[in-house]
Design goal:
The chain contains three helices and two strands. The chain is α+β, with helices and mostly antiparallel strands and 122 residues long. It has a two-stranded antiparallel sheet.
Length: 122
C-alpha cells in the first residue's frame, strides 16, 4: 500500500511509472504524473490496477468468486467450450452461478503465470 523503499519520487508529485508520451520532439519516456491516491503504493489508479493484476496472475488466483452475475456470464461465454450453458429449470440463481464457477474451474483453470521478462539494463 506504500511505495517500496527506493521508489523514485516524481518532481511535482504524481505517478512515477514511465510512459511513452508524444512530444513536439517525438516520443519520450516520461513519468505518468497522474494523481496517486493514498494506499495505492505511490501509483495512479490505472497503474495500481495493472500491478494488482500482475500479482493475481503470478499467483494463479481465481477471481470468479468476486464476479458479479454479469461478469460470471461473460467469463463463461468467453471461456467455456460450448459457451454459457442455460440455467436449468428449477435451478436457483445461486446454484446456477456455482455451476458456472465449477465449469470454469474445470475447463479454464487459472494457473500461475510467470511475470513477463524484465528488459535488459542498458
Amino acid at each position: 500500500m506504500e511505495p517500496p523503499a527506493g521508489f523514485p519520487e516524481v518532481p511535482g508529485g504524481g505517478c512515477g511509472v514511465l510512459e511513452q508520451k508524444e512530444t513536439p520532439g517525438g516520443l519520450q519516456d516520461q513519468p505518468c504524473g497522474k494523481e496517486t491516491p493514498p494506499g495505492m503504493a505511490g501509483l495512479c489508479r490505472s497503474h495500481y490496477t495493472e500491478y494488482l493484476v500482475r500479482l493475481v496472475n503470478a499467483a494463479g488466483l481465481d477471481p470468479s468468486p468476486l464476479y458479479t452475475p454479469a461478469e460470471l456470464a461473460a467469463a463463461a461465454e468467453r471461456h467455456l467450450r460450448g459457451g454459457k450453458p442455460p440455467q436449468l429449470p428449477g435451478e436457483t440463481q445461486g446454484d446456477y452461478e456455482q455451476r458456472l464457477r465449477d465449469a470454469l474451474a474445470r475447463e479454464a483453470p487459472v494457473r500461475p503465470r510467470p511475470p513477463p521478462p524484465k528488459p535488459p539494463l542498458v
